[in-house]
Amino acid sequence: MPAPLLPAGSPRLGLGLAALGRPGYINLGHGEDVGQGKGETAMQARASEVLDAAWEGGARYFDAARSYGKAEAFLGAWLRARAHPATVGSKWGYTYTAGWRTDAETHEVKDHSLSTLERQWPETLEALGRAPDVYLIHSATLDTGVLEDRAVLARLAELAASGVRVGLSTSGPRQAGTLRRALEVRVDGVNPFCVVQATWNLLEPSAGEALAEAQGQGWHVVLKEVVANGRLTARGLTGRGDVPPPLAELAAEHHATPDAVALAAALAQPWTDVVLSGATTVEQWKSNLRANGIRPDLARLAHLAQPPQGYWKSRSALPWT
């Protein structure tokens, strides 16, 4: 059984830097949140402000990736300046290609080959200024064959043997199948993986049973995209404030915002170790933080779930702003 991801008694709400490390992202209203401050210096200052607020609010788990623009470098600089003993997760397998533009034709390129792993691991070490505590295959899928690549698995097993907790993040309508395949991986008779980071939210809860299976086998479970890239916030499913009625009703009853209830629903899952906020601003983080005090009626929210194929089709249509 791996050691806990967080110190005993720590809140389970962490911070992901997908929207903080680059000027463009697919969260609803991201461009509005960032405003005119899209330069690297301004973005780093914003990231530091949100990181400070997150730490003050109890966050002890921080998540980045090679493809999140300068997220690893921003996080590393913040950690060195503050000397905080945080748990840090990062990911390999996507390369940032947008050149700090929001209108780039391609923002990131996926490649799960050994050569990418060997290139990106030292890049992560340099950017963070330390080894990450958790290191994940970024959006592993059955299609890329990464879970069958013996050379990649052997290298990840080496990292696991050195003390890094390795695993995978999942995306897409086949998350459960990918995770179940990962649970079967063996290198010299041992599964090197012990962490999964998956998309789970009230609209897309289909990975839940597989995540419970992973937790039952001693894995750590980290949840991402819990507010569905802004669709489970006050901006609503289309960015025009059309919040699903049950979510809006529960938010009003708890004197909170829809995002806080959506995050609380994720925190209520018994197999969850960490739930990531994707806040772009201090105000969003503070709104998210209300989740810690909410015990939502999950039965009233259950029918919000969408067929996975439809959910992921809608997600893929979200614009980068």
From TrEMBL:
Q: Which InterPro entries match?
A: AKR2_Oxidoreductase (IPR053135), NAD(P)_OxRdtase_dom_sf (IPR036812), NADP_OxRdtase_dom (IPR023210)
Q: Which CDD domains match?
A: AKR_unchar
Q: Where is the NADP-dependent oxidoreductase domain?
A: 40-292
Q: Which SUPFAM superfamilies match?
A: NAD(P)-linked oxidoreductase (SSF51430)
Q: Provide the leader sequence positions.
A: none
Q: Gene3D superfamilies, per this entry?
A: NADP-dependent oxidoreductase domain
Superkingdom of this entry's organism?
Bacteria
**Protein name stated in the entry:** Predicted oxidoreductase
Tell me which species this is from.
Answer: Deinococcus hopiensis KR-140
